[in-house]
Write a structure and sequence with these properties.
globular, four-stranded mixed beta sheet, alpha+beta, 11% strand
């Protein structure tokens, strides 16, 4: 097991290194930085935390993923790991509880393993997608991962759902309905006050650094 580091603890490492940009936090989580082992590797590289890794560091991360992937696959079971990877990469077509999230808490290097598998598949298939496009998609999915963690870790919400257009969190006691999405979204739920926020780095910054 690769020790789990909370988002606030990870943000503390960033602030200590002189960075307070939520985009840097997204990059760090996307590289598996919530794993104690990977965070140690990233810090030992001497490169700024939260920056895109150099070609040399990319090779080190790739080697880590190659060695780590079969270990996680064996521990979680083939279908367990594939379920987690699919949940990370794809939004459900209907509003569903994100049952893949617990895998991230057990295997916090999951984002790096997801990216490693995604890139490997595209290379094998000779896909026309560029690495920049793959990385952009990975960062997009990482923002969702972070937002879901923020909601679960807060303990404030009775129900949390992920869907094709964003994330929903429901507090039955206060009858509050939180919607997180990239574009404005409204859902009719009688008797509940609806609050919409844009799903992006600004939301992450407000929740983690403030």
């Amino acid at each position: 097991m690769s020790g789990y580091i909370s988002l606030r603890a990870l943000a503390y490492h960033l602030v200590n290194s002189g960075q307070r940009d939520p985009i840097s936090l997204v990059h760090l989580v996307a590289l598996g930085g919530q794993s104690a082992d990977l965070l140690h590797l990233l810090k030992a590289s001497g490169e700024p935390l939260g920056d895109l890794p150099s070609p040399r560091l990319q090779c080190e991360l790739s080697l880590y993923a190659q060695q780590r992937y079969p270990v996680v696959q064996k521990e979680s079971g083939k279908h367990g790991l594939q379920h987690a990877i699919h949940g990370f990469q794809h939004s459900p077509s209907l509003w569903e509880t994100p049952l893949w999230i617990p895998y991230h808490y057990v295997y916090p290097d999951l984002p790096l393993l997801v990216y490693y598998q995604h890139v490997s598949q595209h290379i094998l298939r000779a896909s026309p997608c560029s690495f920049e496009q793959l990385w952009h998609h990975h960062l997009h999915r990482t923002i969702r991962l972070i937002a879901l963690q923020v909601l679960f870790d807060s303990g404030l919400w009775d129900e949390i759902y992920e869907g094709p257009d964003g994330i929903i969190a429901v507090d039955h006691h206060t009858q509050l309905f939180l919607l997180l999405s990239e574009q404005y979204l409204t859902i009719n739920k009688p008797g509940y006050q609806q609050h919409w926020q844009r799903l992006g780095p600004l939301f992450i910054g407000e929740q983690i650094f403030n």
